[in-house]
Design brief:
alpha/beta; five-stranded parallel β-sheet
């Protein structure tokens, strides 16, 4: 998969890491759709995550990155979207497996539990890993709710 565009969003807890993540993405020649937030002032994470999920679902972005303190709120919010597979990761091995086995299209980073260095390493791993397909494709095909 050739990654051209990444959507990014975070709340106030994720804000301190966002600038570094955006810089990494741009250094790789990736266009960034930045949905905020743009300050450490307290905000509601769904306001910034839904636009990320919408842009991935619509194809405006190839992948998404969302960040908050625990990573749980942003992952839960993103996963409310039918075609989003957001993976909460706290080490590079999880970021790799999320892409390789689960075809994750959004990386959720828990900034209060990982260093900035680890967050950037996970972003690199997430971008460099590809879905393996095969037996994993069958499983991924069963994730979306058909109710």
């Amino acid at each position: 998969m050739s990654i051209k565009t990444i959507a990014i969003g975070c709340d106030h807890a994720g804000f301190p890491y966002k600038k570094s993540v955006v810089r990494l993405l741009k250094k790789r020649g990736i266009e960034v759709l930045d949905f905020g937030t743009n300050s450490p002032e307290s905000v509601d994470y769904p306001d910034f995550v839904h636009p990320v999920a919408n842009s991935v679902e619509s194809g405006k972005a190839d992948l998404g990155i969302v960040m908050c303190g625990s990573g749980n709120g942003v992952a839960m919010t993103a996963n409310k979207h039918q075609n989003i597979r957001a993976a909460l990761c706290w080490k590079t091995e999880l970021a790799a497996l999320a892409r390789q086995h689960n075809n994750a299209n959004v990386l959720a980073i828990p900034v209060r539990f990982v260093s900035k260095r680890m967050a950037l390493a996970m972003v690199r791993t997430f971008l460099d890993s590809e879905f393996e397909g095969g037996r994993h494709a069958r499983r991924v095909g069963k994730i979306a709710c058909a109710c």
